[in-house]
Design brief:
Layout (H helix, E strand, L loop, with lengths): L8 H15 L6 H10 L17 E2 L4 H11 L3 E5 L9 H4 E6 H16 L12 H7 L11 H5 L20 H9 L1 H5 L11 E2 L4 E2 L4 H9 L5 E6 L4 E7 H10 L4 H7 L19 E2 L4 H11 L3 E5 L6 E6 L4 H5 L12 H14 L12 E2 L5 H11 L3 E5 L5 E6 H6 L17 E2 L7
Parallel strand pairs: 1-2, 5-6, 8-9, 11-12
Antiparallel strand pairs: 2-3, 4-14, 6-7, 9-10, 12-13
Helix pairs in contact: 1-2, 1-11, 5-6, 11-16, 13-15
């Protein structure tokens, strides 16, 4: 009988993995077999991202233009192309780094703070004294986390209530003044390249394996991975967390997947993070505190909890920082923007504009006795990368991210990466936002 054709390119990958699974040496453990299978599939097999997601932002674009581009394309970040690089430049010289919504917002906030104290370094040819006068000053504690924190597990993060200085609340008019300032409109993306996390960024080659891709997204905490063509010196594809979740969801039903996916969370040691170490914000805390914590801890989102500190009333992701810069008018009547105010205002704005967004959904949760397959299908359906584990009273007692899931799927062999990180290095700590 002729085999039913795959449902999608991702399902075709699943079939390829299934063939490898059947051919793999039987004496290997299931974990070793999975590593071997993913290690034998090249990244060139991964389905191409939609053209709208594979974009580059010229280094001479303004911050305002960059924010508009990211918002319209509904993407979180994009590589910055150096407009001064020669046509035959290698990819390392062609790109300056990755610019993100959160990076732009945090950089602007930090600049307004230090400008008020007379210590800011302006972008070439620009002055931020007017911006500081217009916005005033507030305390904003910069991240002290380093590469070892990013390479570690989210379980190593400290509690949101560990005594760190909270971000000051900011009035709704603050962001209206910010995006109307000449500094915001005239500063070029290239001018803030010193704040990019990597120089220029971690990238995959088409010959790299799925195992490399999965390890970078999990253990090494990458949010997305550009795939570069060394011959052309250009980005050929961008692999996102959402795309990987969808790939795994399309593999449901295949024997290799079922051997792993039918295990309960508790069998796999999930959630990894202990309840007292969950990073969260209370509904009455300033929303800037949420984004500050995400930036400090290298996480993509966190729950907003009620006054008891236990039940989640919503989720804020790093992607949601865009609403501070693209729709500041929705906060104009707020004397300060708390996490709850932020959720309320953004949900109303999205509802009125009929725009789909994960922030409109109820908190996506699960119980410890569910299977990893259940979790993957739910993440794919909701287009999110994290799910909260709740107890019988709906209190948050854990969080499971795509990184956690991948960590239970593959492991890093000893000395696996070798000199992989040579040539793309983290910038000095005091350069990051």
């Amino acid at each position: 009988m002729e085999m039913e054709s795959p449902r999608s390119p991702e399902a075709e990958i699943g079939r390829r993995l299934e063939d490898l699974w059947e051919e793999t040496e039987p004496q290997l453990t299931p974990s070793e077999k999975l590593n071997s299978c993913f290690g034998d599939v090249p990244v060139s097999s991964f389905p191409p991202a939609p053209p709208s997601q594979v974009i580059e932002i010229p280094s001479d674009s303004s911050l305002a233009d960059a924010v508009e581009t990211l918002s319209k394309r509904m993407i979180l970040s994009a590589p910055v192309r150096n407009v001064d690089a020669p046509e035959d430049a290698s990819w390392i010289d062609r790109y300056l780094g990755i610019v993100e919504f959160a990076g732009i917002a945090m950089w602007l906030l930090h600049q307004s703070e230090v400008a008020a104290h007379g210590t800011a370094v302006s972008a070439p040819g620009l002055s931020i004294s007017g911006l500081a006068a217009k916005l005033g000053s507030f305390k904003f504690r910069r991240s002290a986390s380093g590469i070892n924190d990013r390479a570690g597990s989210e379980a190593a993060a400290t509690s949101a209530n560990s005594g760190t200085e909270a971000a000051a609340s900011v009035s709704g008019s603050f962001f209206q003044s910010l995006i109307s300032s000449d500094f915001y409109k005239n500063t070029k993306v290239g001018d803030i390249s010193g704040s990019f996390r990597w120089a220029p960024f971690l990238a995959l080659q088409t010959s790299d394996s799925f195992l490399t891709m999965l390890l970078l997204l999990s253990k090494y905490r990458m949010k997305s991975l550009p795939v570069v063509d060394l011959g052309e010196g250009k980005i050929e594809n961008i692999i996102t967390q959402s795309a990987v979740v969808h790939m795994l969801a399309e593999c449901v039903g295949l024997p290799w997947f079922e051997s792993w996916g039918t295990k309960k969370l508790s069998e796999l040691g999930l959630p990894i993070m202990k309840p007292y170490r969950i990073i969260k914000v209370k509904e009455d805390e300033p929303v800037l505190r949420a984004f500050q914590l995400m930036q400090e801890k290298g996480i993509g989102g966190l729950p907003v909890v009620d006054g008891s500190g236990k039940k989640a009333i919503g989720n804020i992701s790093v992607r949601d920082v865009q609403y501070l810069l693209t729709a500041p008018e929705i906060y104009k009547d707020y004397r300060s923007i708390t996490a709850k105010d932020f959720l309320t205002a953004v949900r109303k704005y999205l509802h009125n504009h009929r725009e789909p967004s994960a922030i409109l959904q109820e908190v996506i949760s699960c119980k410890r006795d569910e299977t990893i397959k259940d979790i993957i299908l739910r993440l794919d359906s909701a287009k999110i990368h994290r799910i909260y584990v709740v107890d019988e009273d709906d209190g948050v007692e854990g969080v499971i991210t795509l990184r956690d899931i991948i960590s239970k799927l593959v492991h890093e062999p000893r000395h696996y990466f070798g000199d992989f990180f040579d040539g793309v290095v983290p910038l000095p700590e005091n350069s990051r936002v």
